[in-house]
## 1
Amino acid sequence: MKTIDGVNLRKVAVIGCGFVGSASAFSLMNSGLFSEIVLIDADKDKAEGEAMDISHGIPFARQMKIYAGDYDDIIDASIIIITAGANQKPGETRLDLVRKNAQIFKSIIPEIAKRDYKGILLIVANPVDILTRVALELSGFEENRVIGSGTVLDTARLKTELGQHLQVDSKSVHAFIIGEHGDSEIAAWSSANVSGIALDTFCEMRGHYAHKEATEEIANRVKNSAYEIIKKKHATYYGIAMAVKRICEAIIRDEKSILPVSSMLHGEYGLEGVVLSSPAIVGKNGIETRVPVSLNEEETKALQTSAETLQKIMDDLEL
């Protein structure tokens, strides 16, 4: 067991054992990143049941310890993943959830902070940009240690759509969704490329010429995909579980990967003191630095509008 400053690098905690929390725990169990996973839920039986169910797969994976616990069990975890919150209902936007989930965070974050936690908080509950800001304010932790899952999943959806459209491996697509993880998100088309080739040029190589129509359609499909999934199966959880695993990989392996996570901006894109999603270098200490992508005037304006939307909601919260 390797520990640094009282943090066990092979231990992760998940707070909230609903669909997203349980799927994330299952994804992490299969990842081989951790040797200990502790689950916490307001419903202790739920946490115990999920821990038992997932642990029964250990003979088919790597040896590890998976169990239900309480706040005292998670203080040496390298990462605490917070998925706890009310579910998004059909017809409900992510921002509709804010007051309910901010109240839930008021019961969670102080419990972590008062135990002098030294690791990283990964916020996954929605609306993730707002709740990352809430976690920052309630915890008093350094900004680099409080990360939101942000638009990591939205960006994966964008790459998937573009890969299918162009009939190319989605891993060769380099493009970001930035801003709010939600209705005001922005596809940063002006900086998008496929293996270094400008997106429009690559599209024409593949026989696609109606760039404006195609990009608008793809961006709308990405933005509305969560609503479509919720309409059809009432919740989304597999995609975000894989996004959680990817962020944890970058942290535990100190990969210094560039991921569009939620973090506090300080001057990037002309924005100050607002939490939203933009590319950042992620490693063992959390966020090392933000990496502003090139945006055209229209995209910059849309990002600033997204920031204003988030800031207005934050201003209406009573913390």
## 2
Amino acid sequence: MKRLILAAFAVLSMCPVMAQDKVEAHLGADFVSSYLWRGQEYAGVSVQPMTSLEWKGFNVGAWGSFAIAPQKKFSETQEELDLNLGYSIGGFNIGVVDYFTFGGTPFFRYGNRYQSNHTFEANVGYDFGFLNVNWSTNFAGCDGDTMDGKRAYSSYLQLDAPFTLGKIDWTASLGIVPYRAEYYYQDISSGFHINQVALRGDYSIKFPHFELPVFAQLMANPSSQHFFYCFGFTLKAL
């Protein structure tokens, strides 16, 4: 799997690209009423900073989530740091992500899936404009087991369909777990299932000298039979 990812990056780096010649930097943070991801709720009110660099289709960045007021109903780990590396050309994108949750295990302890709080994921997708399709698979680090006790290579398929209605930019999403994956531990299914049906609306409030992007999201998980609602806003420095 690691060799396949490296080979893909090598091939793509030789492709001609129509992208910016200068490095672009992005810095900002989301403030959310709850941390929702792939049909699950991980924390309550949180601040989620991000920073990234982009150059000729390549991008590298960091994203975090830190609970402002940790709640007992969630796991003790309500802090997260993700590092990502990716490449895109046209509508095609490929990348890897290192998800790290703060739970007492040192950051630089990688080990196997029982001794590390890191999860390494490879992802690939294509944006058709009317539909964005992304497939993700865990290939190293913390992950679940198969019935035989082997690494599950937990995977996820997400479909996003953007549209505009009433001056608001909407995104309808469908999340699918294709086979048994302990990684999505809040679900109750042991096989193929839909764990996310969501609708998100984005709108930018205009002020005299700046704009404030706000968003709201409704998310249902048919597997766990839970329903979530989240509201947030974004502050951007660059």
